[in-house]
Amino acid sequence: MKTFYLMRHGQTRFNEQHRIQGVCDAPLTELGIQQAQTAGAYLKAQGIIPDELYCSTSERASDTLELVTGRTDYTRLKGLKEWDFGAFEGQPEYLNPKLQPNGLGYGDYFAQFGGETNEQVRDRMEATVRQILENSAEGSTLLAVSHGGAMAQFFRRVLTPAPDVRGMKNCCILHFTYEDGIFDLLSIYNPVEETYVYQR
User: Crossing angle, helix 59-69 and helix 30-45, to 10 degrees?
Assistant: First the structure.
């Protein structure tokens, strides 16, 4: 069995300004830096020392990972990037369409504007995470920093049934086990607010 932690990045300038932020990037705010440090303190207090570290190629993810772990021996992977929102990138969040039911997120809405469908996000997230886990040693612990929309589509792809969880805040941590190709989500924890969003 392997242990996999999937974390959202800390607050960014675009988060603070309520702008749509997918493949475009913005730096962490002072609050985002503090959130990452708090998440790092939580992992340390829990005795969680990852054997392998991963993040998306976005600066907000790599900066978060470095603040959380104090390490630079990580791998950046495009497959862990946020949903591509096409022409909506950087625009005010009020332009987002309503979320679709049954965990579909925005469905294929953004494809007509040069972005991704939810199925494309699910495909690349699942393929990327499975590859790193299949290539890791038995009994290892892995930590990856990614993005809220991409993380939500990932767990809705690999879990049946998937928990009805929306709006994971900055630096929320999903705790999975992985064995024989099967993911099990044990919890979603918000170390900033010290609360469980989900616990099995």
Answer: 40
